[in-house]
Design brief:
78% of the residues lie in helices and 5% in strands. It has 170 residues and is mostly helical. The protein has one domain (2-167): Protein Binding, DinI Protein, Chain A. A two-stranded parallel sheet has the order 1-2. Helix 3 (39-79) runs antiparallel to helix 4 and helix 4 packs across helix 5 (161-167). The longest helix has 55 residues, at 84-138.
């Protein structure tokens, strides 16, 4: 009798588990395709590229000025206009400018990264909110990102990209 009750309980647990498994809804989205289609991302990337170009131009100007100073120092040295001590002082000054240019380049890279994060974070948040809303409204327990290459197979019927795009007004 005891084994009979255990068997019935085991079957009941399996039955409930199978019902719960059938009730779970899975979906996927390719976030890279979605991002590429968003006008806001294109605008943000253009702003980042403009900022990057401005920093590059400033860096190039700094290098051009330094090159001119090196050429001038070389000409003065060849003409004998500078004593060895003056030449050494001038060379040290130019080396210090080289260090400043290298620092500027490193800071520029960080500024570009910071600008990208500042500009793109609200867009990523907007996408995530739309995905959350679609999942909640449509009853999805999980929505995976196909752009990460983790999904080995997915039925096209589980692609929620269209729903997310409509939630984003695209």
């Amino acid at each position: 009798m005891k084994t009979h009750i255990i068997k019935i309980l085991a079957l009941a647990v399996l039955f409930v588990a199978s019902i719960q498994m059938q009730a779970q809804k899975f979906g996927y989205i390719n976030s890279q395709v979605l991002i590429q289609d968003m006008a806001e991302v294109k605008e943000a990337n253009a702003n980042i590229e403009t900022y990057k170009t401005q920093l590059q131009k400033k860096g190039e100007e700094m290098v051009t000025k330094l090159t001119t100073k090196y050429q001038s120092l070389e000409a003065k040295r060849n003409n004998g206009e500078l004593s060895p001590k003056q030449l050494e002082v001038e060379a040290q000054t130019l080396k210090a400018e080289e260090v400043k240019i290298a620092q500027f380049e490193q800071e520029s890279q960080q500024k570009i990264i910071d600008k990208s994060e500042t500009v793109l974070k609200p867009i990523r948040d907007k996408i995530q909110n739309a995905i959350n809303e679609v999942a909640s409204e449509q009853g999805y327990q999980y929505i995976f990102d196909a752009s990460l290459g983790i999904i080995l197979y997915a039925d096209d019927a589980t692609d929620v990209s269209t729903l997310v795009k409509s939630k984003l007004g695209m």
